[in-house]
Amino acid sequence: MLVRIVRMAFQEGKTSEFLALFDASKQRIRAFPGCRHLELLRDLDQPTVYVTYSHWESPEALEQYRRSDLFITTWAATKALFADRPAAFSLETVETVSL
């Protein structure tokens, strides 16, 4: 499984537009083949910074999503709202610690 984290800083006054975009696409993203989990997080200290946290079956599943019309149109609309370059990371779980 692949964990994808994308950190996005938005222009002042543009977060409501982003939240509307996310709301309109979140169910389709989550239902995309290979997507196992999707969360939207907000930075407590920087309220214009949001992070998506998602789980994908494989790098190939994520790449299929990134080539889809859903991603292309959603990302284009989201990019227009950025205050800074986004940072994206693809990770794999090394160890999970439970009590």
From TrEMBL:
GO MF term set: monooxygenase activity
Start and end residues of each ABM domain: 2-91
InterPro entries recorded: ABM_dom (IPR007138), Dimeric_a/b-barrel (IPR011008)
Superkingdom of this protein's organism: Bacteria
Keywords: Monooxygenase, Oxidoreductase
UniProt xrefs under Pfam families: ABM (PF03992)
Keyword Oxidoreductase in record: yes
Database matches in Gene3D superfamilies: 3.30.70.100
EC numbers, comma separated: 1.-.-.-
Xref: SUPFAM superfamilies: Dimeric alpha+beta barrel
Protein name: Quinol monooxygenase
Organism from which the protein derives: Larkinella insperata
